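Ticket opened by: R.M.
Priority: normal
Category: complex prediction / small molecule

The reporter submitted a protein together with adenosine-5'-diphosphate and asked that the result be attached to this ticket for the collaborator who will pick it up next week. Submitted input follows.
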Amino acid sequence: MASNSTNRARQLNRLIELNHLSAQMEAATIFQSLVEMGAELTNSEYSSILAFDSEIHALKFIAGPWLQMPRLKTMVVPLDGSIAGNTFKTNEPAILSSADKDPNLFRPVQEALGIRTNTLLSVPIRFRGNVLGVMQAVNKYEGDYDHEDTAFLLSLGAQAATAMHIQRLEQEINHWIEHAEMMKQREHNFISIASHELRTPLGIMLGNATFLREMIQSPDLRPQVEAIIISGIRLKEVIETLTRVDNSASGTARLRSAQVNMNQLVEDLVTSYQSEAQRKGITLSVELHSSTVLVEGEADKIGVALQNILRNAIAFTGEGGSIHVVLRKINDYAQLSVSDTGIGIPEEEQGRIFDRFYQVESHLTRRHGGMGLGLSVAKNMIEMHGGQIWVTSKPNQGSTFTIVIPEKHSELVTEEIEPE
Ligand code: ADP
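Result attached by the on-call engineer:
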């Protein structure tokens, strides 16, 4: 009696140990350990786990007697005409004292194993009200299976259920990661092909239209040719944005390093947007640092970033609104902020507006043009300089986009610089 209770205590300890270990184990190892323990705890010849496969609507072995597993894995156990299938459908444990005589016994399994099935215990593997599979113990060495064996197998089945659930979630995550990577690749291919295929004919059209403009004698035709050229230039800008996005996504964008006079750059760009702002009835003002702020990098790329932010500020600010641009030198950084009194951006959207092709308002309903690329390009250009870009905004009150760029490009921004 004493040795029996010592034995039970040892078995329970192993059960607890397995419970702890399972967090670090691969699903297949957990299933194999569970069937070994299932056989041991119920004093059986072997134990097995079958999982429901929704694609074939049948059960399949995922663990069992180790040596026979290659064979068992290929077997499909039907829901109708098998004891495991019955357990799965009824969601109830079953104890059979002479399984061999049961018309429901799925005989190919015992034929494959070369073992006659006498006694059999079959329990459902349950997870949150669903049955995921079945766990079985076969041929108890002494006597018949009892309630204690059932309780043990149900408890092991519960562990198998958690492992199965995690395994399914992992498979699902992997599937979606693969899908996302495939979509990313397609997006890259589409952008490269589209920008390449559009660039050549557009170049020819623009070249010929410019030639026509020079050659045309009749002033009546000039506006039409002018319109072709203006639209062509706009299309060229779109293609350039696409190419920039594609280069930065594929990592082929390179930075030519020089000293950039930020005061000059900001002043020039703000001046170039004055007339557009005026046309919309928006006040555009600028405040530059008292001394020249220099950063290491490429003026064109920083210019593209600022341009995209300014364009948005004008697009999303209504008549009578204002835009204020401030350039400051803070420690070893140039800090540039563009504040507008426009429509603002809801908090839940603020993290996503820097994603490629993301627009807060649907492309179909919005009044402004754009492809949802401006901010992702801006972010990329700034990060190439070791800088950061962020937004603070309140709907209907306005937005402030802030850029920080280190003076020296090698000095990457490692700590978050809080917006003022
Ligand atoms: P797009 O060129 O289509 O405007 P962007 O990447 O530049 O794309 O911007 C993404 C989205 O972020 C915009 O469609 C807009 O919804 C929002 N957004 C950007 N700047 C502002 C701003 N200053 N005020 C309000 N919303 C803005």
